[in-house]
Amino acid sequence: MLFRAGGGAHLAYRSGTAPGAGQVAVPIGLAELSGIKLGDRVEVLGPTNEHRTVQVSGIFDPPARTDAFWFGEDTPFPQGDSMDPVPVLVDGPTARTLATELGLSTHFAWDLYLSLAGITYPDALNLPDAYVQFSTEIDHRLIVQQQPPHVSSGIQILIAGVQRSVSDLRVPILLVLLQILVVTLVVLAGVGVLFVSRQSFELAVLHSRGFTTRTLLLAQGLQALLAAAFALPIGIAIGALLSRFAGLTNGPRPGEAGFPITVSLSSVLFGAAAAAAGALVLWLPSIPAVRRTIIAERRQTSRETRPTLARAPVELIVLPVGLFALAQLRNGEALAPATAGQGSIDPLLLFGPTLVILGASFLVVRLLSWGLGSLDGRIGRSRRLSTYLAGRRLGRTPGVVFASAVLVVLATGLLFVSTT
After folding, report:
1. Nearest to 396 by CA among 318, 332, 305
2. Are residues 315 and 406 both part of a single domain?
């Protein structure tokens, strides 16, 4: 026999209504088995053979398991393959009257529902300790007839599962960030090469006029640091916008669960480290340029050859490895079976997209170089001076052409990776 305040509104009645004083609602299974009909009077028998009669006010279907009103930690309705009978439902006064007059044993249960809307992850980590404190207070305050209360909750298991998931995802997320960082640094290397190629003559003049290599390197380093200082807040702002975009497109979430996005100290430090690495990459192409005099610069310009990366078949090595890694990843072989939240992920497979982007970029750049070489004859026969000069400039500065092409292709790939 069950009483729960407001329980009548959480049951679907085939006939009748919720019970009032001196009434009872019975489940459909019991009604069909015992031939009970609406309006019948049934007896309630106590342990001392005392009995009382109540009237059937309604016949209901057992509630769905998705109804949180009934299915808490101590649900009164049987679950799964349980053979326990479905309880009958009475109101509060009837339950107290029958328990007192018939000497029925009672069991009281309260379901407490926590409002976790808007809670942050650090606050959620404190819930298990708060639960232990709450259980201790209840044990000391609520003792009925020398029977201590029992407090049960799944909050500890829930938080432990969340902590395990966060721990398991931390390494893959960092690896994905490193993928984007690697591609970004390659893009910055292309920018640095282009920038130095535009400054190489001025640097050679300054070196010939008496400026030391150390002074020129310091000036180039300050220039790169200034660019990194301007780029850091812009990069953090773009990262915050991408995070909000990810929060809006992350799929359905239960109830009013939010997707909080904050700029933490660790994220700022990570961005600062990335900006410092970018400044270093921008500065490195200046090292050979600041050591050349005007004569050496002219000789370098007249004898410029293709860069080492342009001569080596990088795409024939990187692209197949990346495609194989992506194929393995799509087949699910990258993720080892995880038990108790522990598993292993092959970093090579997580770097598969980066390898594909790099390999495809070098392949596209090589195709563009071949296409430009095939047009050399047509450029020489061109009657337009601007077309002729631009074509000859591109054909005789393979380093600049290679850096420009890599910059454009990798920037496109980086945009695709960052937004997906």
Report:
1. 305
2. yes
What is the DSSP secondary structure assignment for residue 311, as one 8-state letter? H
d(CA 384, CA 388): 6
Would you say 124 and 152 are in contact if contact means Cβ atoms under 8 Å apart? no
pLDDT of residue 256: 63
- pLDDT for 226 equals 92
The answer as to whether 144 is a domain residue is no
The Cα–Cα gap between 384 and 393 comes to 14
DSSP structure class, residue 64 = P
Report the pLDDT value the prediction gives residue 418, as an integer from 0 to 100.
63
* Angle, helix 352-374 to helix 314-330, in steps of 10 degrees: 140
Q: Give me the residues of the chain with pLDDT under 50, please.
A: 334-343
Answer whether 10's CB lies under 8 Å from 43's CB. no
Assess if residue 102 is contained within a domain. Answer: yes
The total number of structural domains in the chain stands at: 3
pLDDT tens, residue by residue, 129-177 = 888 888 888 877 776 655 677 777 778 888 888 888 888 777 777 777 7
CA separation (Å) from 117 to 113, 152, 280?
Answer: 12, 22, 44
DSSP 77-114: S--TT--PPPPPB--HHHHHHHHHHHT-----------
What pLDDT, on the 0 to 100 scale, is given for residue 230? Answer: 92
* Tokens at 337, concatenated: 């079976």
Burial class (CB in 10 A: 0-12, 13-18, 19+), 239: middle
How distant, in Å, are the alpha carbons of 110, 323, 345 from that of 308? 74, 24, 33
Residue 129 belongs to a domain: no
Question: Quick check: is 135 in a domain?
Answer: no
Tens-digit pLDDT profile for residues 211-269: 888 888 898 889 889 999 998 999 888 888 888 887 777 767 666 666 777 888 888 89
DSSP state of 13: E
| Structural domain boundaries, residue 373 | 306-337+344-420
Whole-prediction pTM: 0.54
Residue type, 343: G
